[in-house]
Write a structure and sequence with these properties.
324 residues, mainly alpha, 16 helices, 80% helix
Length: 324
């Protein structure tokens, strides 16, 4: 229902742009199309209501935790690693270059909503008892960094947001795979049903620890690079926004490591945990590939950032030109 209503408004905006551009669906034609500020604002709001649902942004985020809980492991991985990025891509590809004046005018609103997602959702994640719900809420918080970076409209912020999108695909996908590994064996996602997993699944516990650290934003993992770049971009924009955004490093560590500690460490909780078998070769292969990506991006992010410079600078040139 959320997606349907948002998409209908986006369709109306696209039909208007099609008519005003003389019957063209070419995005480059839309980039050059002069628009009054009133029209730009309405188009931006129509796109915002669509893309905000898909990211998802606060307060239209409530569908995501329920969707993750109901979805199988594969569905959660695809949803976290790919589907959520479509909304952020929409802002980057459509909203910013097509309606730049409205984007500048509405930037404080988007930044405020992003900060609420980063801080408030972090506290919500702290009280979750279902592992999938906890990681789902952490996804909302991390994607708040993406929209925050985009609408500060400086190179560090946008490049950091793009890095965060890629990193979130690796880390969040890996976290859902790890939860899926345990669910296949115990058939429960409740944190209280686990404890002492390291005693029976040491290889799994080591890989799970890496992904938990990346989800917390530990340096030398991909989770740190994007968040740090966005925070640096926020310092250039406004110190207090950077201060608020930096709280995610504390909250992220709190809810992720709290979950990891209760699930993995301590005495063996029950007979189901005592009977667990460590990951097989197939599970180890897939988790190891994601671990390599997380470490490679964290230790040497330059290949990712270098290819972004030209595109980001071109985008900022578009956004800087008024269409009024």
């Amino acid at each position: 229902l959320y997606t349907l209503l948002g998409s209908l408004l986006m369709l109306v905006a696209f039909i208007y742009l099609f008519r005003e551009s003389g019957g063209s669906f070419n995005i480059l034609d839309w980039h050059k199309l002069p628009l009054a500020i009133e029209a730009q604002t309405l188009i931006f709001i129509a796109m915002l209501l669509s893309f905000a649902v898909k990211v998802p942004m606060w307060p239209v985020h409530t569908w995501l935790p329920d969707a993750h809980v109901e979805a199988p492991t594969g569905g959660s991985v695809v949803l976290a690693a790919i589907a959520l990025k479509l909304g952020a891509y929409g802002f980057l590809r459509f909203s910013l270059p097509i309606v730049p004046d409205a984007s500048h005018a509405m930037a404080p609103l988007i930044i405020t909503l992003s900060l609420i997602a980063v801080v408030y959702i972090g506290f919500v994640a702290l009280v979750q008892t279902d592992m999938k719900k906890l990681v789902a809420y952490s996804s909302i918080s991390h994607m708040g960094f993406v929209t925050l970076g985009f609408f500060m409209m400086n190179p560090l912020g946008i490049e950091g947001a793009l890095i965060q999108m890629i990193s979130h695909g690796f880390v969040s996908g890996a976290m859902f795979l790890c939860i899926g590994v345990m669910y296949d064996r115990v058939h429960s996602r409740q944190i209280a049903d686990y404890g002492g997993v390291v005693n029976t699944m040491p290889k799994f516990a080591a890989l799970f620890m890496l992904f938990a650290m990346a989800n917390s934003g530990l340096p030398a993992t991909s989770g740190f690079v994007g968040e740090f770049m966005v925070i640096l971009g926020a310092v250039q924009y406004n110190f207090w926004i950077a201060f608020m955004a930096a709280t995610t490093l504390i909250l992220g560590a709190a809810y992720t490591l709290w979950m990891y500690k209760r699930v993995v460490f301590g005495a063996v909780a029950n007979k189901h945990v005592a009977e667990l078998e460590d990951i097989g070769s197939r599970e180890f292969l897939f988790l190891s590939l994601l671990a390599i990506c997380v470490l490679a991006m964290g230790l040497y992010p330059q290949p990712f950032t270098e290819v972004m410079h030209a595109t980001v600078n071109d985008l900022l040139r578009h956004v800087a030109v008024s269409k009024l």
